[in-house]
TrEMBL record:
It holds the Pfam family Phage_integrase. Transmembrane segments: none annotated. It comes from Dictyobacter alpinus. Keywords: DNA integration, DNA recombination, DNA-binding. GO terms for biological process: DNA integration; DNA recombination. This is Tyrosine recombinase XerC. Residues 57-144 form the Core-binding (CB) domain. Residues 165-336 form the Tyr recombinase domain. Belongs to the 'phage' integrase family. The keyword Metal-binding does not apply. The keyword DNA-binding applies. One of its GO terms (molecular function) is DNA binding. Residues 1-49 are annotated as: Disordered.
Length: 336
């Protein structure tokens, strides 16, 4: 019965980040996709930043077009910086004048082996090697997709990852205890409730503004997750319905703290302090973070019957992030 009670308060989506096992053989069997179907449409004009590129274009000439491509696809500043750094290292190893169409699978393997074993006394972290494999697949798949190269030298490149350790999510009783303790402070209550009942990320919570909370229908309060256009994260925007009790929680917070614009006008460190006080008051011995609250939300959603696709929509995850998160949440919700 306790579980059923918890499930009744789950929000509904209105709209629709380790350790690695090293392996000697970096190449597996590529997957062949059958693309039969309707007749192909006439090819569209290539984007301006790649219009003049061919398989005879030097590897170095792709640095700036690749940067533009990453930005256009909404990659984070961190990803753009890391992938461009990897491309420059690849250019230095293979030669700036090498035509991109002459890069082979063996050459890509040689680069990875040089990175891994080429400097005596230096061992790269498995996570760093994994990122460089990811870069290679991203870069050459882009070239293949744009018909700049005919054969993708990274198509069969693999580096196996074991499952990372699973977080110790909160139980239903711990969730109730935390929410009860959070009620002592209107700001803490609003913060904890938004993550436990809407699954927001810390950055999303900090980006919330008062007008993103819709209380027109007090029985179905809505929270809209929005991003600045410069963040290139519009694909993660969504609208989530919360239980009716959030209406009073939010109104109490607005009145107590006189909030008029940004919902939580403080630093992320402040949010951690706010949460830590409630965790201590609830006598929860686990290490509880804002991310753990989001993980707890995801697990409760799956146990309540939400599909994996539905959960992804509620969490607003990209393709890359969902690949790992999907298995993590499935294992947490339905352990063997």
């Amino acid at each position: 019965m306790q579980k059923d009670s918890e499930q009744e308060t789950q929000p509904i989506a209105v709209q629709t980040e380790e350790k690695m096992v090293e392996q000697d053989n970096l190449f597996g069997t590529p997957i062949v996709l059958d693309d039969e179907g309707d007749e192909p449409e006439a090819p569209a004009s290539p984007p301006e930043h790649i219009a003049s590129l061919t398989d005879q274009t030097s590897l170095a000439a792709f640095i700036e077009p690749y940067r533009k491509e990453l930005v256009l696809r909404g990659k984070s500043n961190y990803t753009v910086t890391c992938f461009l750094s990897d491309l420059k290292m690849l250019v230095k190893f293979m030669g700036a004048d090498l035509p991109v169409g002459r890069v082979t699978k063996d050459m890509v393997t040689d680069w990875l082996m040089n990175l891994k074993f080429g400097t005596p006394g230096v061992t790269l972290a498995p996570k760093t090697m994994a990122r460089r494999v990811t870069f290679l697949k991203n870069f050459f798949t882009w070239l293949e997709r744009e018909n700049i190269i005919r054969e993708n030298p990274s198509s069969s490149l693999t580096l196996e990852r074991p499952q990372p350790p699973l977080p110790d999510v909160l139980t239903y009783d711990e969730v109730r205890s935390l929410l009860k303790a959070a009620q002592e402070d209107a700001r803490c209550h609003c913060l904890v409730y938004l993550i436990l009942r809407a699954g927001l990320k810390k950055e999303e919570v900090m980006g919330l503004k008062v007008h993103h909370i819709d209380l027109i229908d007090p029985l179905t309060p809505l929270v809209s997750v929005r991003f600045a256009a410069s963040a290139n994260k519009q694909h993660r925007e969504r609208r989530i319905a919360l239980p009716a009790e959030f209406t009073d929680i939010f109104r109490r917070y607005l009145q107590s703290y006189r909030v008029t614009d940004v919902v939580f006008p403080c630093t992320d460190r402040n949010l951690n302090y706010i949460l830590a006080r409630a965790v201590s008051a609830a006598d929860i011995k686990k290490r509880v973070t804002l991310q753990l609250l989001r993980d707890t939300y995801a697990v409760q959603q799956l146990r309540a019957g939400t599909s994996l696709d539905g959960l992804r929509e509620k969490l607003g995850l990209s393709d890359e992030a969902w690949l790992e998160a999907r298995e993590k949440y499935r294992r947490l919700a339905f352990p063997k």
